[in-house]
Amino acid sequence: MPLVPLAPSRSTGYNSPVPPVSQTIRVKVLFFGRLKELTGRAEDSIEFADATTLEQLFALYSARHPDLAKYRSSVVASRNQEFAAWNTPLRAGDEVAFLPPVSGG
Amino acid sequence: MATLPHDDLYQLVREPIDMAALAQHVRAPEDGAIVTFDGFVRNQSHNRATLYLDYEAYESMAVAKMREIGAQLHEKYRIHRVAMVHRLGRLEIGETSVFIAVSAPHRAAAFDACRFAIDTLKRTVPIWKKEYFADGAVWADGELPPTPAATPRSESAS
């Protein structure tokens, strides 16, 4: 692989431009039960605009996995291991989970 | 949240549940009664013969929710100790999936608390079971946990 000479621009230095932290946040997202099967993953890490709500995050995944949308009415969401209202805004470092109806016991 | 007595027990396990040991764990000289609940794998579901069940959990949240139930039990009932254990992974017919033991000075509180504990566990603890049949598998019908109502934007204390 040819070496590309480092030519730092005056404005950004050696680092590639990174959006200001206030604009995007990264959260961990967990899927369980049939939602895990639908998305094909138990865990994801995703970056999006600050203050995105749980509802908007679920919609984002539904766009990638259209089958998710039909389960929306039978899913609850949690934020940092507490059940949370769908209009809850997310913060950097949050742990979100989408949970199907529980069936322990 | 009330603090829990340190001799209560709230666990997720992957091995068979030792019910006698748990009943012994909650037993104390000042008590007069222990009520236990043993939930085990049924051999059929909706008239289909079950082969086995597979349980999974959001483990850290599940234990936290089990402890919340315990705190509620101590607030609501005059009980002494609680042991609440749920097993995960593959369970065969007849194997215990959940076991709850509650001790109390008098039986009424132990009965009431044990009933409240299993009913609340089934509604609020993030555990799921997949039922395997000869011709396929399904996620069991479950209950949707109650969630906070949508609120105007305000940071809840967390």
Tell me the helix content of chain A.
Answer: 10-25%
Q: How many E strands of chain A?
A: 5
What proportion strand of chain B? 25-35%
DSSP strand (E) fraction of chain A? 25-35%
Pair of chains with the largest interface and how many residues each contributes: A-B, 27 and 39 residues
Total strands of chain B: 9
Nearest-integer average pLDDT of chain A: 86
The N- and C-terminal alpha carbons of chain B lie at a distance of 12 Å
User: What's the main sheet of chain B like?
Assistant: 5 strands, antiparallel
- Structural class of chain A, by secondary structure, is alpha+beta
Structural class of chain B: alpha+beta
> What is the N-to-C succession of helices and strands of chain A?
EHEHEEE
Strand order of the largest sheet of chain A: 2-1-5-3-4
Nearest-angstrom radius of gyration of chain B? 17 Å
Describe, in plain words, how this protein is organized in 3D.
The complex is a heterodimer of chains A (105) and B (158). By secondary structure, chain A is of the alpha+beta class. Chain A has 2 helices and 5 strands, in the order βαβαβββ. Chain A has a 5-stranded mixed β-sheet. Chain B has 158 residues and is of the alpha+beta class. Chain B is 28% helix and 35% strand. Chain B is built from 3 helices and 9 strands, in the order βαβββαβββαββ. In chain B, strands 3, 4, 6, 8 and 9 form a 5-stranded antiparallel β-sheet that branches. In chain B, a hairpin with a 2-residue loop joins β3 and β4. Chain B is globular and about 50 Å long. The termini of chain B are close together. In chain B, 30% of the residues are buried.
Question: Tags for this entry?
Answer:
heterodimer, A: 105 residues, alpha+beta, 5 strands, disordered N terminus, B: 158 residues, five-stranded antiparallel beta sheet, four-stranded mixed beta sheet, 9 strands, globular
